[in-house]
User: Which sequence fits this backbone?
């Protein structure tokens, strides 16, 4: 138990806290928790640690936001399914939410503005009725004043025409009359006149005014009408209706609650303007008193409130019937100065009240219900469409992610070497076709790997064949007492169909000490039809046949000898072993018969055979269809070795001619295959002339140098193209 605890402790000590951005977030969170405890200390210490905690919290947020984004991107957004869900939310659901939000905000604004419009319309209707009443009264008072004789007699009380007040409402208009700015008594009943006549209203353009006015911090609906009397005096009637809670209840009836706000500064400015406006007004030799008694106005200013409202709050019919709070402005005129301004108005209503006001007409029964039911049905249809789209999106995303998951799992299993794994496909869409293509690709990959293994096996076998063939060729340089030999073969592919060989003949010398000396050498150069493995196999057959016929004379010796001859040693008969090979034409005839009978009809070979006698420097040769070797003399003459016959292995019973000549010191025999002279470029074939030009230029150099220069010239002539054929070159120089 103690060891287990010690191991857990060591494991915990070895575990390092996270580094980088995660480490910074870790330490900041730890410090934040510590400061959260330290801020509980009393006094200045707690305040100090609280301030430090605020800064640490800000730093923690700055570090945690990018860390959280990194975690979300690596963990949540790594999966294609999560990405598709987020994409749908951004592309499909986000516009719907934004559109619904826009509609709700627009509906809220429209509902609030509609409530304001209804309140303003009701106030305007009241103002229009009051203006019409005031116009009738102005006509009545003007007729009364014009009927007095003589004109200009002192004004007396004038009775207003009955029935001009508003019997349909409980509102009461206050009316005052002025003649050239001088108050005129109206009837026997003394009416309160809260509004005086300001200077700007003594001569109105158009003769009338109506609107919302502010006087001494109080709001009124005012209507002013003017009419010129017969004696040229100006009659002015002012009707006013105070905006109080009773009036606001009428305005907000069926709408909710309405409230008008009055700025205190407007009231003080109005008071100052009243003092400035209290001056004489000329007209009919009399002076106009102040528009309103100063004491009454001051009392009004002391008692007025900053807002006036009326109405009540009604309960909502359902959860969606929320309160609509909306603020707008209404046009207002300062009664003292005549300046135009605006005051705020606030409406608190509900959609059900506004809906009732909008569709509460005479046709509100059936038509309103039809509209309401239609809107509900449309909302339900839209909701069902959105739900259908959501379900389809989920199914489509699952289809996509399932296919991608199958592909990912398949790639993981293929990576582990399970090449026989296939994806189960049941759909017919593009992703299903992609899965089928993946299965096809996996099968092709499995087949290619098997072919690759087979190719590697064949390549290994070809490499072995290349090594075997390389062992068939003699050493590149072979020197006799009187003749230097050099040969090189460069295959166009892995193995070559060209053939060359050097066969050195010896004889035993008995001069007290046993020794061997060279008596001659056989030179062979051939070219098998075709390239590659088949040509290389035929080349090996030709090589073995030539080597076999090298010892053919032994059998002749055995057939003619006696029992003593049969008992003789092979070394004693070594000098006679080259008798047969000294006749290249006879050897070619035997090879022709052998290849014709042992190979396919289309297989044949060109072959040049020569025998060089060391003692006499005599070269005997026969050419079976091979490009004629060239002998470059010391004096620059060139001899073509073209005696012989046709190719070997093509027709049976062929005979081959022979020729012989003696080589002189410095003579160089150049034997080559068609891969040396036939390579082409834009300037034509390499040709014999270029070959002999290179050999002639370096004739005094060692044979391997001459061979190297020929190969370099060929490479420069071929360029970047592939080597078209096997290249074989044999050089022999008389010493």
Assistant:
């Amino acid at each position: 138990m103690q060891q287990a605890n010690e191991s857990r402790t060591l494991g915990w000590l070895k575990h390092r806290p996270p580094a980088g951005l995660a480490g910074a977030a870790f330490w900041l969170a730890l410090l934040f928790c510590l400061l959260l405890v330290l801020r509980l200390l009393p006094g200045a210490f707690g305040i100090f640690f609280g301030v430090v905690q605020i800064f640490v919290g800000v730093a923690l947020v700055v570090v945690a936001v990018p860390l959280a984004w990194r975690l979300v991107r690596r963990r949540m957004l790594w999966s294609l399914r999560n990405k598709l869900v987020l994409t749908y939310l951004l592309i499909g659901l986000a516009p719907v939410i934004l559109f619904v939000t826009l509609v709700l905000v627009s509906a809220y604004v429209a509902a609030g503005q509609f409530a304001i419009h209804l309140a303003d319309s009701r106030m305007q209707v009241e103002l229009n009725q009051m203006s019409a009443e005031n116009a009738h009264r102005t006509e009545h008072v003007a007729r009364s004043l014009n009927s007095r004789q003589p004109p200009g007699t002192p004004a007396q009380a004038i009775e207003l025409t009955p029935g001009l007040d508003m019997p349909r409402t409980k509102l009461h208009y206050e009316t005052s009359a002025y003649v050239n700015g001088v108050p005129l008594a109206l009837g026997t009943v003394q009416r309160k006149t809260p509004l005086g006549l300001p200077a700007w209203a003594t001569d109105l353009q158009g003769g009338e005014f109506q609107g919302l006015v502010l006087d001494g911090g109080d709001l009124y609906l005012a209507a002013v009408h003017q009419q010129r009397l017969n004696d040229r005096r100006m009659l002015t009637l002012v009707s006013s209706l105070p905006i109080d809670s009773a009036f606001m209840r009428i305005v907000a009836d069926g709408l909710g609650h309405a409230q008008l706000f009055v700025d205190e500064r407007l009231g003080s400015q109005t008071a100052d303007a009243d003092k400035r406006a209290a001056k004489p007004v000329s007209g009919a030799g009399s002076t106009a008193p102040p528009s309103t008694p100063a004491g009454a106005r001051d009392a009004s200013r002391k008692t007025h409130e900053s807002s006036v409202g009326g109405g009540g709050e009604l309960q909502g019919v359902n959860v969606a019937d929320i309160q609509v709070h909306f603020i707008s402005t209404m046009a207002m005129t300062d009664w003292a100065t005549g300046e135009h301004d605006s005051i705020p108005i606030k409406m608190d209503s509900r959609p059900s009240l506004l809906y009732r006001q909008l569709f509460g007409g005479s046709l509100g029964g059936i038509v309103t219900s039809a509209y309401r039911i239609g809107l509900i049905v449309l909302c339900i249809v839209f909701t069902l469409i959105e739900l259908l789209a959501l379900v389809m999106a989920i199914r489509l995303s699952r289809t996509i992610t399932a296919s991608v998951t199958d592909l990912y799992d398949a790639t993981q299993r293929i990576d582990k070497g399970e090449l026989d794994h296939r994806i189960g496909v049941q759909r017919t869409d593009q992703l299903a076709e992609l899965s089928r293509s993946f299965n096809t690709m996996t099968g092709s990959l499995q087949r290619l790997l098997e072919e690759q293994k087979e190719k590697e096996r064949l390549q290994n076998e070809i490499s072995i064949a290349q090594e075997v063939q390389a062992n068939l060729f003699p050493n590149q340089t072979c020197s006799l007492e009187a003749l230097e030999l050099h040969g090189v073969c460069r295959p166009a592919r892995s193995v070559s169909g060209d053939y060359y060989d050097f066969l050195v003949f010896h004889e035993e010398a008995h001069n007290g000490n046993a020794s061997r000396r060279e008596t001659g050498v056989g030179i062979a150069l051939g070219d098998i039809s075709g390239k590659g493995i088949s040509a290389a196999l035929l080349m090996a057959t030709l090589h073995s046949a030539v080597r076999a016929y090298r010892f053919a004379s032994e059998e002749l010796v055995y057939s003619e000898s006696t029992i003593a001859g049969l008992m003789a040693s092979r070394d004693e008969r070594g000098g006679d072993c080259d008798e047969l090979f000294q006749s290249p034409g006879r050897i070619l005839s035997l090879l022709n018969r052998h290849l014709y009978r042992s190979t396919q009809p289309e297989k044949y070979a060109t072959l040049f055979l020569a025998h060089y006698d060391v003692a006499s420097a005599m070269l005997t040769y026969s050419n079976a269809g091979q490009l004629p070797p060239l002998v470059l003399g010391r004096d620059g003459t060139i001899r073509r070795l073209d005696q012989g016959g046709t190719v070997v292995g093509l027709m049976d019973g062929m005979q081959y001619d022979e020729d012989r000549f003696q080589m002189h010191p410095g003579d160089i025999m150049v034997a080559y295959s068609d891969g040396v002279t036939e390579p082409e470029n834009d300037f034509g074939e390499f040709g014999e002339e270029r070959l002999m030009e290179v050999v002639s230029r370096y004739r005094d150099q060692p044979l391997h140098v001459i061979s190297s220069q020929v190969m370099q010239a060929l490479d420069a002539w071929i360029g970047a193209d592939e080597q078209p054929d096997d290249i074989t070159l044999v050089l022999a120089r008389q010493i």
Observations:
- The chain has 17 helices and 23 strands.
